[in-house]
Specification:
Elements lengths: L8 H4 L4 H4 L5 H14 L3 E3 L25 E9 L5 E10 L1 H22 L9 H18 L3 E8 L2 H8 L1 H16 L7 E4 L4 E7 L3 H16 L3 E3 L2 E3 L3 E7 L7 H17 L5 E3 L11
Parallel strand pairs: 9-10
Antiparallel strand pairs: 1-2, 2-3, 4-6, 4-9, 5-6, 7-8
Helix pairs in contact: 6-7
Bound molecules: guanosine-5'-triphosphate (GTP).
Guanosine-5'-triphosphate binds next to strand 4, helix 6 and helix 7.
């Protein structure tokens, strides 16, 4: 106590605890101590519930964490000969090292989880994460009702973009496309990078007419401005296919297939356009 508080033994012995340590949560501590008196039973708090009881500096040079010593506290009854509690002894254990390494580990796990769901180039969800989120959404709808729409879009002539301007330029185009999408979508819409130059978006509670508008807005937003990077200016375009679960479809793979067929049609019809799966004529392959 002498080492960690600013009090010497002479200054503190016999004094009122709460007057010496003014920052103590007095009500909480009184309740805690009273329960030990009442129950004649040891009590405990860990740094995870309450980081510290007494504001002691921990003396470690760690940034980004609490400036005080993390503490575990034991409240032990001390009884007289008749087994009545006469005192409560508070033991404070310095948990700073364990607390800091536990928190660093937690932060690393959170970051790892984030990285494992994100595509490094575009910072959009990667395929595995997006597909899981989409499957969950379709399952939710199947159980509780509602609808979800799906757009798949793909860069046009991306191979030539790479071949003519270099892979780095191609990468820049993909990053730019991802950014342009973010300006169009609502916070509840979920976008991911599905493959090389293929992107997917699912739109919760959105009907097919609204989805057509979003797909067109995405296309325009991406295609209206050329990409400029290291003295190269290049117009780009995308083709998109979209569908919805509203017409009795509760299978996420089936929805992906439908949107993919519509995307294929958008390519076949000359690219730089959006095709509604539900409007495909019967003579064109639907499934
Ligand atoms: N720069 C870059 N290129 C990629 C990446 N992933 C895939 N690609 C390239 O994207 C190109 C896709 O080519 P294709 O599938 O033929 O498609 P496309 O040329 O866009 O033709 P259409 O889709 O029919 O218009 C391939 O050359 C891939 O190497 C990436 O992360 N960065």
């Amino acid at each position: 106590m002498e080492v960690h508080s600013d009090f010497s033994e002479n200054e503190i012995i016999g004094k009122n605890f709460f007057e010496c340590f003014k920052n103590i949560p007095q009500k909480w501590l009184e309740r805690k101590i009273n329960s030990v008196f009442l129950l004649n039973h040891e009590s405990y708090t860990s740094w995870e519930q309450r980081p510290y009881l007494l504001q002691f500096s921990h003396g470690r040079s760690v940034t980004g964490h609490l400036g005080f010593m993390y503490q575990n506290c034991n409240f032990t009854p001390i009884c007289n000969q008749d087994n009545e509690v006469e005192y409560v002894c508070i033991t404070i254990k310095d948990m700073t090292d364990i607390a800091i390494s536990t928190m660093q580990l937690k932060e690393a796990c959170t970051e790892l989880e984030r990285i494992s769901s994100i595509d490094g180039l575009t910072q959009l969800y990667n395929r595995a994460h997006w597909e899981k989120a989409f499957a969950n959404e379709v399952e939710r709808i199947d159980r509780y009702g509602g609808k979800v729409s799906l757009i798949i879009f793909d860069m046009d002539y991306f191979k030539s973009i790479n071949d003519n301007n270099g892979h780095l330029f191609g990468d820049q185009v993909l990053k730019e496309v991802a950014n342009r999408c973010k300006n169009v979508l609502r916070s509840v819409d979920v976008i991911g990078r599905y493959g090389g130059e293929e992107f997917v978006v699912f739109l919760p509670e959105t009907n097919i007419q609204e989805t057509a508008l979003v797909a067109e807005k995405l296309r325009k937003n991406i295609c209206d401005t050329p990409v400029y990077y290291e003295d190269i200016t290049l117009p780009i375009s995308i083709s998109a296919g979209f569908t919805t679960s509203a017409v009795e479809c509760n299978d996420f793979e089936k929805l992906l297939r439908q949107a993919d067929i519509a995307l294929y049609q958008a390519k076949a019809r000359g690219r730089n356009q959006c095709v509604n799966y539900l409007k495909l004529p019967v003579e064109e392959p639907k499934e």
